[in-house]
UniProtKB/TrEMBL annotation:
Gene3D superfamilies: lambda repressor-like DNA-binding domains. It comes from Deferribacter desulfuricans (strain DSM 14783 / JCM 11476 / NBRC 101012 / SSM1). One of its GO terms (molecular function) is DNA binding. The keyword Membrane applies. Keywords: Membrane, Transmembrane, Transmembrane helix. SUPFAM superfamilies: lambda repressor-like DNA-binding domains (SSF47413). The lineage of its organism: Bacteria, Pseudomonadati, Deferribacterota, Deferribacteres, Deferribacterales. This is Cytoskeleton protein RodZ-like C-terminal domain-containing protein.
Length: 282
């Protein structure tokens, strides 16, 4: 435990406050407050989070944060946080990759469909052949005579009828529809989306890029709420940093900047522990 963390914990206990009391007052989860009191700042989402949460916590307890700043700097260093770099590919490259992937899937499933059709034809012909032999055997046992020539002809006609039915069913199979249904099922099964809610308390312009595909560009008014779903990340530019609050899985993020201050390239993503993390990228 760092000296900074010990000062905060001792002060809180002297005021008979629980972590839950502090969490409700400054809108920071008890999990983050526990990390601060343990001195485990590097487990917070970013240095920005560590600084902002610690400052709010100290000031709520009645401290002047500037006086505690040397202790904080000693306990929490920027280099303790691993940097992330965002590689944003062009829509054109992504579209080419998607097209190639779709073509590959189409050929794979086309081959599967052809194999199934061949198996279906073989099955019907084989079943018909066995049925004809069975019928002839039964007739031979009953009549004890050799099958007549016209009976053989009738059996051939039955085989032709079965072939016609199979060919008709094959003609009705649409490989494109089968591929589309499989692709839709893959999208549902393989993609997991996260959802964040954006709330605005003042007017500002907003530009959001979601997973390098969806672009939202709008003017938000006081009271505007916007729910966005993303798979990997979203990148946001805002014209009024103080107007935006983001909620994700019972966590609240705000204080991205000053009133009427524009902020660009705020990169949000979810880590392995399902924590929403953000940083400003170039």
């Amino acid at each position: 435990m760092s000296e900074f963390s010990k000062v905060l914990r001792d002060k809180r206990e002297s005021l008979n406050l629980s972590l839950s009391d502090v969490s409700k007052a400054i809108k920071v989860t008890t999990h983050y407050l526990e990390l601060i009191e343990k001195g485990e700042f590097n487990k917070l989402p970013s240095y920005v989070h560590a600084y902002g949460f610690s400052k709010s916590y100290a000031e709520y307890l009645g401290f002047n944060f500037d006086e505690l700043k040397p202790l904080f700097d000693e306990a929490c260093k920027k280099e303790d946080f691993q940097k992330k770099y965002v590689k944003i590919e062009s829509d054109e490259i992504i579209q080419k990759e998607v097209n190639l992937k779709n073509i590959h899937k189409f050929f794979v499933f086309f081959i599967i469909v052809v194999i199934l059709i061949i198996a279906l034809v073989y099955y019907f012909l084989n079943v018909n052949k066995k049925q004809v032999i069975k019928n002839l055997t039964v007739e031979n046992k009953t009549a004890n005579v050799v099958p007549l020539e016209n009976e053989t002809i009738n059996s051939d006609n039955k085989s032709k009828d079965i072939k016609a039915i199979v060919e008709e069913k094959i003609d009705k199979i649409d490989p494109k529809k089968i591929v589309e249904q499989i692709n839709k099922k893959e999208v549902v099964d393989n993609e997991t989306f996260h959802e964040a809610v954006l709330e605005f308390n003042d007017i500002c312009w907003v530009n959001i890029k979601i997973d390098n595909k969806t672009v939202l560009d709008f003017i938000a008014n006081p009271g505007t709420k916007k729910s966005i779903k993303f798979k990997k990340y979203f990148l946001i530019d805002i014209g009024n940093a103080a107007a935006l609050t983001i909620k994700y899985d019972n966590l609240t993020f705000s204080r991205f900047g000053g009133f009427r201050q524009p902020v660009k390239n705020l990169y949000f993503t979810v880590n392995e522990d399902n924590y929403l993390m953000y940083e400003k990228v170039k």
